[in-house]
Fold this sequence. Notes:
The protein is built from eleven helices and no strands. It is mostly helical.
Amino acid sequence: MNRAFAARLALGSNHHTSGVRVGHSSAPRKHLNHSYPSARRSFINSESTPKTQDLPKRRPTKQDAEILVQLWQIFPREAYRWFQGNFSAKTLEEHDKKYPPGSLERDYITQLREFYETVGVLVSQGVLSEDLFFDVAFHLSGVWEKLGPVIKDWQRAKNNPAIEENMEWLARRYESWLKTVWKPGLKWKTRNVGYDQVPRRRPKGKDSTRAIREARRERASEISR
């Protein structure tokens, strides 16, 4: 991983850079659909939950693992602990009154927003495997459940759907992933690593079922070595 990218990730862990937008700017944009990946573009147009098949499926790589470890290192744990036990705003107005700019609480909220916004960029651009990230998820569902209504209110107030759009996309994507990909007992993982793969050409004749079973056993044996 290059130094520039590592430095960009590192911004999220610096409490003194909470005003720096690690993800996309909240300033109004023109032509939101231009050059967007299809999954995020369809979400912006319809606000429907993006389908997991919109991004190409691939096995996580060593680079994905390195990015995930770096995200784990910079995840704002102190901010999350405060958020989990204390955040209570339901609207943008209430949010601004309870947690005014310059307060420690506002800084905590900003750290969390920037973290998930950055991850949303990485996943939607295909830089980070969604299967790998969603397997950890970093408390995404709980944070979005509380903070999502405030962000939606913020978007409406500014008439700007680009505000924290990557975080919103990531949260909706995760909801869809849990419904369509995740399976209990790690079954979705064994599918990805090939335990249930069968030969591309199905054997013909009476011994086809036996041949398929033997191929599966051989494949499982290779993976376990």
